[in-house]
Amino acid sequence: MKERKDLWKPEEDQFLKEMVLEYTSNGDSKASAFKKASSELGRTVSACQYRWNAVLKKELSLPATEADSRITTAKQSSNEFETAPLANLDQVILFLKNFAKTQPDSELFKQNKLLNEEHTQLNLLNEQLKIKLEDKRKVFEKELLQYEEMAGILKEADQLLKQEGLEEKRAIH
Question: What is the mean pLDDT of residues 16-26?
Fold first, then answer.
């Protein structure tokens, strides 16, 4: 049985984080990551699992202000954060939140703002066009009804003319 160690060192936390993120990004289970970490750190699997769920997992999904200070501390202690690939969705979200705060005047931000404005304008134009289309549809239906009535009148007139023509032919014969 492994010896009990109560306090976790920052290096142990970092190792456990890296191990779990590496295993999960490769499609392996967290359980296998805990097992590997426990043998490397000299801790129990349960201790690694508890540390991950109680502390480290929450650190990865902290609000941006708390995460900023922790990331700054992590960067000061190690440059691995900058070079390590983003291994899970929590890290990606955290990166994007921090990126948006550190690069508010970036070209992408400006383009995004322009695209959002264009999207708003296109939505307004779309609504206006829908209203115009509905008005045109109503006018079309009204004119179609008038056309059908005129076609009916012309048909009746044609039938009357044919009847008169038949009566004249009978009268002549």
Answer: 87
User: Model confidence over 109-157: pLDDT tens digits?
Assistant: 788 889 999 999 999 999 999 999 999 999 999 999 999 999 999 999 9
Asked whether the beta carbons of 16 and 37 are under 8 A apart, the reply is yes
Nearest to 100, CA basis, from 58, 61, 62, 68:
68
Q: Is the pLDDT of residue 79 over 90?
A: no
What would the two tokens of residue 164 be? 């008169």
| Domain spans of the chain, in order of start | 10-102, 104-173
Q: Side-chain half-sphere of 43: how many Cα atoms within 13 Å?
A: 22
Q: Which two tokens stand for residue 76?
A: 């000061």
CA-wise closest residue to 94 among 54, 64, 59? 64
Residue with tokens 């941006």, as numbered in its chain: 64
Q: For residues 114 and 109, give the distance between their C-alpha atoms in angstroms, rounded to a whole number.
A: 9
Non-local (6+) Cβ contacts of 22 within 8 A are 33, 87
Q: What distances in angstroms separate CA 146 from CA 150, 156, 157, one per listed residue?
A: 6, 15, 16
